[in-house]
Amino acid sequence: MINVYLDDFRPCPAGFVLAKNAEECILLLEGEQIGILSLDFDLGWGQPTGLHVVQAMVEKGLYPQEVFLHTSSPSGKMQMYQLLLRHAPEHVRLHNGPMAG
């Protein structure tokens, strides 16, 4: 089981695998069991966002055990959180914010 940190800019925390874009993150979701997934929203100009990852999770039924939203985009965080709240199975622990430091 691995932990995944989706971000194109921030440094990856210890104990996490870095996904620098939505495609990498989705490939990890498809191929690995994920304990903690921490999502950014903005992943570079013109690039798919963290919401793209959440939409793929919902469509494909690919859920980690726990999700954190470390984005600095309030609207992006709200969109990802609302979609996960509506669709994630009960066993998925959902946090509307970043991991404690």
Short description:
This protein is α/β, with parallel strands linked by helices and 101 residues long.
Characterize the structure shown:
35% of the residues lie in helices and 21% in strands. The protein has three helices and five strands; from the N terminus they run ββαβαβαβ. A five-stranded parallel beta sheet has the order 2-1-3-4-5. α1 runs parallel beside α2 and α2 packs parallel to α3 (74-87). It is globular and about 30 Å long.
Mean pLDDT: 97
Instruction: Indicate the low-confidence ranges by residue numbers.
Output: none
- Sketch the major β-sheet: 5 strands, parallel
Beta-strand content bin: 15-25%
Q: How many distinct folded domains? A: 1
- Helix fraction by DSSP (H/I, runs of at least 4): 25-40%
Tell me the total number of β-strands. 5
In CATH terms, what is the fold-level topology?
Answer: Rossmann fold
The chain-level structural class is alpha/beta
Ends: how far apart? 22 Å
Shape assignment:
globular
Instruction: Say which CATH homologous superfamily is assigned.
Output: Response regulator
In the CATH hierarchy, the architecture is: 3-Layer(aba) Sandwich
Using only C-alpha atoms, the radius of gyration works out to 12 Å
- The spatial strand order of the largest sheet comes to 2-1-3-4-5
Order of H and E elements:
EEHEHEHE
Instruction: Quickly name the level 1 CATH class.
Output: Alpha Beta
InterPro entries: cREC_REC
Protein name: Cyclic-phosphate processing Receiver domain-containing protein
Pfam families: cREC_REC (PF20274)
